[in-house]
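Thread amino acids onto this structure.
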């Protein structure tokens, strides 16, 4: 069954093919849910990045990731996900929000590989679609 979001943005910022089958791509992206990493930004300050992944529940809403999402046969053809990336600069005595970006990601099954479309919601500040691609590919 396809799990798509009917308000998926018509303007796609980036499309690419992930060289793994559809179910493996879903498992990989689901594994990013709740992950946190720390990296150095271009301004030489530490930035903590938190990731939240949600999947289309029906045509109008997104919901938390459930174990049935990664079972074979549960999702076929296409899956829409909403991935939130929160970046916090670690400065002096606390954490300062740098960016809170939301991306819509559509996975489409192409048998031997998975096509991925990325569309960013809102203003261009913070992360862009190329950053999301690198995050999805583990770079």
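Threaded sequence (139 positions):
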């Amino acid at each position: 069954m396809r799990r798509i979001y009917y308000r998926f943005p018509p303007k796609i910022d980036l499309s690419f093919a992930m060289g793994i089958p559809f179910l493996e791509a879903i498992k990989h992206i689901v594994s990013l849910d709740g992950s946190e990493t720390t990296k150095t930004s271009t301004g030489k300050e530490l930035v903590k990045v938190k990731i939240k992944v949600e999947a289309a529940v029906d045509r109008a809403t997104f919901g938390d990731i459930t174990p049935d999402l990664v079972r074979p046969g549960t999702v076929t053809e296409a899956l829409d996900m909403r991935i939130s990336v929160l970046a916090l600069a670690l400065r002096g005595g606390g954490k300062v929000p740098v960016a809170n970006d939301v991306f819509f990601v559509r996975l489409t099954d192409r048998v031997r590989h998975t096509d991925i479309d990325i569309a960013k919601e809102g203003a261009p500040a913070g992360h862009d679609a190329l950053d999301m691609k690198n995050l999805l590919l583990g770079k």
